[in-house]
Amino acid sequence: MKKKLFITRKFPPHIVEPLKEFYDIKQWEEEEIVIPREKLLAAVADCEALWVTLADQVDEELLVHAPHLKLVTNLAVGFNNIDIKALRKRGIMATNTPGVLTNTTADFVMGLLLATARRIPESDRYLREGKWKSWYPMQLVGKDVSGSTIGIIGMGRIGQAVARRAKGFDMKILYNNRRRRHEAEEMYGFQYVSLEDLLKQSDFVVIMTPFNDDTVGLIGAEELALMKDDAVLINASRGGIIDENALYETLKSGKLWAAGLDVFEQEPIALDHPLLTLPNVVALPHIGSASLQTRTAMLMLNVKALTAYGQGQTPSNRID
């Protein structure tokens, strides 16, 4: 008898089709709309495997409704949507998609940094709204990236990839991490500093740390006050690491050059959120890994894990 798999989003048919050899598959038939919670809770009642996205919370409530669940496959490298402790308690495995999105996300972070520093989205709006009447010396002037100092909070795979790219812009690289990266320091000249010193010295502060109990609200009013008055704050990790209210008040007061944000505490962000009223905030809809090649590779990692489980093997990319 085939195992029962529920997929919380409509994925491309050619991605899902090979899994039919091992699974009786049911799928939420919407690509853009998140499955309503009550429908998800009903759908997991008899499934043994569950394929989710970041928008789906796999928590105690869901697990109570899923007595047969043995595997959760997450279409993301981060997994703060999954209560890993609750899964372990029940002997349920979980997998994610590490590695394949490192370079794509690092490319994106540099793009977001450049767009924010040089006011590229604001300039695009300026042109489209018919405001470009002439050229003048201080028109839409931005902030130089080359030769500046970047401070990276979180020096995992993606953080290191961002740092290597920053070297290409002749930037001085500071970083703060739970443990030092001695090999990277020796190879590339990255400099380890305390979080306080990183905030004080950096022209660009880039958040790449995972979201967990230690990083909730890591950047609040006190931390923002330490930053240079013309610094740029970039977050392409997870929402909730920055205190958004504190960031709004800081930017509104005229401190900081700008902020570039791909992630928010609540996603999608409400259109009446105060941050969206500020011209020096570049806000994007969580697209850090959104290249065709990378999203396909992420899907295929999930398929690989599900195939292994369907064949009675232990999946790779398990979240330990």
Shape: globular
Number of strands: 12
Give the percentage of residues in beta strands: 15-25%
Mean pLDDT: 97
Radius of gyration, rounded? 22 Å
Please explain how this structure is put together.
- Helix content is 34%, strand content 15%.
- The mean pLDDT is 97.
- The chain has helices at 13-16, 37-43, 60-64, 84-90, 102-117, 120-128, 157-168, 182-188, 195-201, 221-226, 244-252, 292-310, and strands at 3-7, 23-27, 49-52, 71-74, 93-95, 149-153, 172-176, 191-192, 204-207, 232-235, 258-261, 281-283.
- The strands form two sheets. The protein has a seven-stranded parallel beta sheet, sandwiched between helices. Strands 2-1-3-4-5 form a five-stranded parallel beta sheet, with helices on both faces.
- With 320 residues, it is α/β, with parallel strands linked by helices.
- The chain is globular.
- It contains twelve helices and twelve strands.
- The longest helix is centred in the last third of the chain and has 19 residues, at 292-310.
